[in-house]
Amino acid sequence: MDHFAYRDGRLVCDEAPAAELAERFGTPLYVYCARTIRHHFRVLRDAFAALDAPPLLCYSVKANSNLSLLRLLHGEGAGFDVVSGGELLRVRAAGGDPKKVVYAGVGKSTREIHEALAAGILLFNVEAETELERIDACARAQNAVAGVALRLNPDVDPKTHRYITTGKKENKFGINLDRAERVLRHAQELRGVECRGLHIHIGSQITDPKPYVEAIRRVLDYVASGAPGTERVRWLDIGGGFGVHYRSQEALPAAAFAQAIVPELAGRGLNVILEPGRFIMGNAGILLTRAVTVKRSGERRFVICDAGMNDLMRPALYQSYHRVWPAAGQAPPADQGARDGHGHVDVVGPICESGDFLGNDRDLPEVAEGDLLAVFSAGAYGMSMASNYNTRPRPAEVLVDGAEARLIRRRESYDDLLGPERECL
Ligand SMILES: Cc1ncc(COP(=O)(O)O)c(C=O)c1O
Fold first, then answer.
1. Is residue 346 located within the same domain as residue 384?
2. What mean pLDDT comes out for the span 381-403?
């Protein structure tokens, strides 16, 4: 569910017409809908409310790390899942509570560990035995005890894109289940850490609850085996990964995941953490872009836009699908995705790479130069992955709530582009 719709021949975000936003703030422009973000957060929270205790929803900051959005989610009661010192900095700048922060990431630096310890975060999600030792050393240096959760690799296939599969043995993430006992035993010998939880995150854009159930069963079987160290486990962090609609209505509602997952966890006496990113933000944002040049080459038509892979990297990185459609006129057909591969229009960016596209082989109404297009479902892993490639300023971001639109990040300037560099000759 989202609040982007076509009304009277024009696209609106909640009560704000897309064309007016583009006129006022320029393009390319990320537009987020506060009502949709709140809705997704509440739906997920309520779906899992039947657990023994209300779950802690730690929004995954990497999906979209804009301070205003973090502040909005903090206001909803969210905790945060971070993977770097920079993300922790953002959470704190947005007023987030460090006691509701979990910290994953396969390459935490010593500096980052010190900062997270000093902030007093809830749990380090530990990805390797040597990392556990490093956290222990940092904690002892600060006369502190770090709460940790072992990130276990349950070796299940979430059946998603291979770049966003994270819970299989061949992935770099977590500790294999068959090594868990040894690492837990080791943790007991270290004075600076206390293993209070277990963590899994099997992948992203998952549209089937079965892999979660399988992974959770593997971890709970392990806990039930009574292996040394498991008696202190109070938290089970089941990660994020809940899929969203990109093509049409392919994702499952939160309730469908909860119906399968909650019975597995009920009665275990564990506090449950969820780390949703995409589920909250994916369908809550669009990218507005103008057609700069329209040209033909044989049968093909190219619509070259002012947004490219530096603004929205997902199509180039994962060949991922985003609906792309003019902001004026009728709504796109619900099955636009089904016709992918049979259309005649390539909607591409201005970057000097053939992989720079927003949507290939699309059926699109006639588009003229200057027309405004919307790239849908761009709220997650859009702006947070944006870069300055081709020395292009990153886009502005706007948050709409009702009819009100607020600029929550200004467009980068040419000064921003050159700012960090020093002349060396
Ligand atoms: C540890 C961890 N938790 C949560 C997430 C969020 O995933 P999603 O946005 O699919 O919910 C990720 C994404 O990569 C992750 O690595």
1. yes
2. 98
